[in-house]
Amino acid sequence: MFGDRPDTSSVGGLMLRKIIKRCAERLGYSTRCQRWLTPEDQESAKFRAFVERNIDKADYLSRNPDVAKACADPVEHWLNHGCLEGRRLSPDLEVLLGQTAALADQKTWELFRYRGKFVAVRPTFLPQRVVDQILEQGQFDAAVFAPGFHAIRTLRRYNFADLLSRHGIDITRLLGVISQRPRAVILLPFLVIGGVEKYASAIVEAFEAAGLWPTLVLVTDQTEAAAAKWQPLSILAPLRKAQIVFWRSFCPSVGRHEAALARILNGIAPDVILVINSQVGLEMVSRYGRGLSQKSKLFCAFFGLSPNALGAPYGWRYPRSTLPFATALTDNGRTARILRNSFAALPQCRIAILPPMSELATREEWDERLFARRLRAASVQPCKRWLWISRIEYFKGLKLLNEVATLRSGDEFHIFGPADRPLEELGLRSDNIKHNGFLNNVGTIDCALYDAFIFTSMFEGMPNVVLEMAQKAIPLVLTRVGGLDETFDDSAAIFIEPDKQSSSRSFADALAGLTMKSPDDIVSMVNAAYEQASSRHGPETFRRNVARLFCTHEPNA
Questions:
Q1: DSSP states of 297-319 as a string?
Q2: For residue 166, is it within any domain?
Q3: Per residue in 306-343, pLDDT tens?
Q4: Taking the model in full, what pTM does it have?
Q5: Mind listing the UniProt keywords for this protein, alphabetically (predicted)?
Q6: Is 148 helix (H, G, I), strand (E, B) or coil?
Q7: Which residues have a Cβ under 8 Å from the Cβ of 476 and sit 6 or more positions away?
Q8: Are residues 410 and 349 in the same domain?
């Protein structure tokens, strides 16, 4: 009868409403005041209905004896007072109010508005699938039952995204740039010119051939801005097809945050996780390897273990804590033997050797280079030129290089490679050492202009640059480090024993002896180096080794 809402915006409207109500009562009719619900009212009603469905009234009254004593309705009390006082709605629900709720991630929180204020709610109980996973883990580590078998379901739960956001990690943007779930993840500290980066690039290329694709390369130490010029580098060309993510772009705060990284990789669950020289990756495997190994095959690469290296090499610091969960990967047998002898007492000690790959010269290229080498060996050069290529760092044998250059002051030593300091500060003070910058592509250098390639490092795994030089028809004079003598014998290279007081004199004498060799001897020497490098490090051999190791997990050491 009184369906139309009277105008109550004026005093006259209020008086009219009272008159109508009084007349209706005298005539025996009941009045029915119809209330118009605004959108805000509708949202509040929706949240009230949610509270009525989910509040545990018995639990609420038992935990709040003042409410029970007052005989208050739990729903009304919580909506009017309890939510503002921080009283728990239900043991299985977590509630946020106000601006904090407005900023909550809608992927993990259910959002409401009540009386104009934001409210966010999400369950706190462990899903049954998580409980089942914990119980399954118990057969490997009984410590997970420490809280008590029946208490597991009521353990406090922390949201994955919340834990990551505490470290300033933009998890939404990070997962957004990973277009597909990767089957393999490689952790590298930098994208620069170096043997480690070339080794990783070859593995990425072999992963594609083996079906471990897509592959994600996670750069852990370098920012995207610092690595802006990596794409033109020829040794990193295979990485252009992989997904590249710079960890520092999403985790800018101070610290390595190996726990956050472990959570992300555990969520992605790739088939293979390979850590190459990344300290945060090695820390992650050391601390969380047991959990990660339930879903992924773990590998940690170690290349050299010389005690003369600067600092403590990762190969000494981490294998004891990573080997129980991960296979130790190395590129040479010498490191594999040291690892096996040092850590064989561990319950699990898997060690695998994966010799690095070298691109082979075609027969036409080789014939041309061999002809140029014969001409160089037959010519009379009053000033000999020696070629040296590497990063210009202390443990690359710079002291030995300087001493050899001083002993052979009439020769020229041309060195290529990046240097972060002036040569004098690095110990290269001899006037006949010429720094020619660094090479984006080693293949562009004309080795026919030089009499030999010299390698002076005191601490190496299996240096890629030597394998590349073996394809250039240039004699090799090398320190006996890493796996060099596993690939080359004395017919293919001249070896100098490092770490001796006489090393510089022996090196200088070896160069003098090389200049006395006939052209036929030089040709025979470079031919032997080419054949030996090709048989052990050719692309097809490398791809077969990668498929066997990462797809079937058969270590060969």
A1: EEEEE-----TTSSS--HHHHSH
A2: no
A3: 655 444 578 888 999 999 999 999 999 989 998 999 88
A4: 0.71
A5: Glycosyltransferase, Transferase
A6: coil
A7: 452, 453, 455, 466, 469, 470, 488, 492, 493, 494, 525, 529
A8: no
